[in-house]
C-alpha cells in the first residue's frame, strides 16, 4: 500500500442484466462504512440504472470503454461524454480483452484516455504481458512500453489509474507470485508521470487472496472480474482493501 488512493474496481465485462442491480445495491449497503474507493463497471446498458440504484452510496459507476471522439458517425460506439452523462465517473481503457478482440493499440488507448479526461472521467488504463512474454523474460519491457505509449499528456493522479493485469492470470485462477506482482508494481511506480497515481493489480483476485495482494507495498487496490459479480465476494475484497 502506498500513499495513493485505494480503489477496489469491479469489471462486470459482458455480464449483467437489470435483475443483477440487486448485487450493486447489496454492495452499496455492505460498503457503507468503508473508506476506500469502490467502483463497479457494468456493461454500458446498465450504467445509468446502476448509477441510480447506488446513488448516495459509496459505490461509484464506470464504463468499460469509450470512443476517442466526442460524437459522430461511429455506429455502436459510445463517447466519454455519454458515459459521464449516464452517471459514470471512471472508464476502463485498454483492457487486454479489447486489445485482443478489437485490435486496440496503445496509441488508441492514449487517445481514448485523452477523451476520458476531457469529459471529466478518470481513466483506468490496463497493462499486462502474455504468458509467452513472461516466459521470455520480457514482462517489464512490455508493461513499461505499454505505460509509456498508453498515457496521454496531462495524465495525473486526479484523472488516471493504472491496472496491471497479466493476461495469463485473467479468469484462470492463476496469479503471479507476490514477488512477481511487487516487481512489476515497483517498476511502474517509478515510471509514472505522477507517483501518486493509484496502481491496481488485476487477474484472479478473490476473497481468499486479496489480503496478501493488498499487503504488497505498491499495490493500491484491485481490478476484479468474476469475483465482482456477486456482492458477497466483492464486498469481502473491498473489506480486505479497507483493512490493508
Ligand atoms: P478476473 O478477476 O475474472 O480474473 O478478471 C480480471 C479482469 O480482467 C478485470 O479487468
* Assigned CATH architecture: Alpha-Beta Barrel
Order of strands, main sheet, comes to: 1-2-3-4-5-6-7-8
Number of helices: 10
Q: Provide the CATH superfamily.
A: Aldolase class I
Helix content: 25-40%
The rounded Rg comes to 16 Å
The ligands bound in this entry are: 1,3-dihydroxyacetonephosphate
For the terminal residues, how far apart are their CA atoms? 7 Å
Low-confidence sequence ranges: none
Major β-sheet annotation? 8 strands, parallel, barrel
Q: What would CATH call the class?
A: Alpha Beta
Order of helices and strands: EHEHEHEHHEHHEHEHEH
Structural class by sheet pairing and helices: alpha/beta
Number of strand segments: 8
Strand content: 15-25%
Mean pLDDT: 97
- CATH-defined fold name: TIM Barrel
Total domains, how many?
1
Shape: globular
Amino acid at each position: 500500500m502506498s500513499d495513493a488512493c485505494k480503489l477496489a474496481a469491479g469489471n462486470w465485462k459482458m455480464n449483467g442484466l437489470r435483475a443483477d442491480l440487486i448485487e450493486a445495491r447489496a454492495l452499496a449497503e455492505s460498503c457503507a462504512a468503508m473508506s476506500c474507493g469502490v467502483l463497479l463497471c457494468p456493461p454500458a446498458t446498465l450504467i445509468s440504472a446502476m448509477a441510480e440504484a447506488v446513488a448516495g452510496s459509496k459505490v461509484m459507476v464506470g464504463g468499460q470503454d469509450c470512443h476517442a471522439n466526442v460524437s459522430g458517425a461511429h455506429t455502436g460506439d459510445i463517447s466519454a461524454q455519454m458515459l459521464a452523462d449516464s452517471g459514470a465517473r471512471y472508464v476502463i481503457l485498454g483492457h487486454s480483452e479489447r486489445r485482443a478482440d478489437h485490435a486496440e493499440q496503445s496509441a488508441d488507448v492514449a487517445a481514448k484516455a485523452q477523451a476520458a479526461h476531457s469529459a471529466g472521467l478518470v481513466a483506468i488504463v490496463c497493462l499486462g504481458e502474455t504468458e509467452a512474454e513472461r516466459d521470455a523474460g520480457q514482462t517489464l519491457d512490455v508493461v513499461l512500453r505499454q505505460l509509456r505509449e498508453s498515457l496521454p499528456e496531462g495524465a495525473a493522479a486526479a484523472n488516471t489509474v493504472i491496472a496491471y493485469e497479466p493476461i495469463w492470470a485473467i479468469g484462470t485462477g492463476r496469479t503471479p507470485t507476490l514477488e512477481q506482482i511487487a516487481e512489476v508494481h515497483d517498476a511502474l511506480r517509478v515510471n509514472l508521470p505522477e507517483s501518486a497515481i493509484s496502481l491496481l493489480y488485476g487477474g484472479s483476485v478473490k476473497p481468499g487472496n486479496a489480503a496478501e495482494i493488498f499487503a504488497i507495498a505498491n499495490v493500491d487496490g484491485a481490478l476484479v472480474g468474476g469475483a465482482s459479480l456477486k456482492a458477497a465476494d466483492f464486498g469481502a475484497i473491498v473489506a480486505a482493501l479497507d483493512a490493508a
